[in-house]
Amino acid sequence: MIESFGNRTWKDHWHALSREIGLSFQEWLGTPARLMVWAEQFPPTDVPPIGSAAGGIDETRVAPWHRFGQWSAFDFPRREDGLLMGWTRDSFGSYSGCRRICQPLSNLASTTKRRVAVDIRNIDGLGCSKGPLHKYDCLADFARHECGRELGAADEATLYSALAHREIRIIHQEKPSDHLSFYAWDNRVFLSNAGGSHHFAAAQYLAVIFDRPIVIEATLHETILSEPAIESLRSEFNVFAVHDKAQSECAFMDAMKPSDIPFYWMPLPTRLGQARAIFLPRSDQRASRVAAVLRQSGFTDLGVLLLDIAQKQRTPDDRITELEHISTSGRINEKLRGQIAERLTAA
User: Fold this and answer.
1) Tens of pLDDT along 180-236?
2) How would you list the strands of the sheet with 95-101, edge to edge?
3) At what angle do helices 156-163 and 331-346 cross, to 10 degrees?
4) Helix-helix angle 33-41:285-297, to 10 degrees
5) Residue 258 has pLDDT above 90, yes or no
6) pTM for the whole thing?
7) How many Å apart are CA 311 and CA 66, to the nearest integer?
8) Contact assessment for residue 81 and residue 106, using Cβ atoms and an 8 Å cutoff
9) Positive or negative, the Cα torsion across 148, 143, 178, 60?
10) Domain assignments of the chain as residue spans, ordered by start
11) Largest CA distance in the chain
């Protein structure tokens, strides 16, 4: 008869003890054995696919790398951007929680604003709509399937009628909140709108059909990732993506604690899925061995990924015209409004 202790037998306890002794011995030899066990429990296949690609016409689905390093505004207490949470050995020799500011994360992206002119046919997507933007790969498909009422007779009069819709604020307001957005790693131009999506899509669709240039003036918000900041981040840390569950359950910390291996973490932007970034200091030999295990196990190296994304960034200059003279601001849209009124009066 085998004696039991709680819900486990003495044999189970002996196996657990033997396993712990084996893991401790491997850790003493410098092998991150517990981390290897952790990698089997939370494999890289559990991590949502992470990259820069995002199809469709929905601006909210652009990979938000410019928000990497920013904590949610809904966190309480509020945490400043670039703040890393982590664990390391303190001055008293205890493995304890810590935090630090990672400056490269604070400088990861920048946004510039400039006045530009753009043909609406060169706009790739929208910021919001009552319609299902996420279902469509191009605005033409959205217009065909969701804008039947706005397309009407699908003639030139309908084109100008759609453009006359007051909710297309970027045309009809002197200082609209609507603007153009361009993310250099995504390479698409979006109309960041607050309304008028169906009328705008219909107008664009008809402008293409009738080969009619419709040029508008707007403020372009151009966001770009900083290669120097990414290089600085990589020189200081190995950074990997892990499933959010692996950190929130403290499983990763449990694997690092026996050898006092330092690490930091922060969540990846929500739209990238349930994932967190693990930061392993390159200056620590034990943390570097952990990085090697994660790399060999197939976890995404965010430093390598970000640098690759940054190096492939492009500009929208082949699709927009920069307006050099601020004194002419508003005249393009004013002229367009006049043309719209003229066409509708003649119709």
Assistant:
1) 999 999 999 999 999 999 999 999 999 999 999 999 999 999 999 999 999 999 999
2) 95-101, 83-89, 263-267, 275-281, 237-243
3) 130
4) 30
5) no
6) 0.87
7) 15
8) yes
9) positive
10) 33-54+69-108+227-311, 110-225+317-346
11) 100
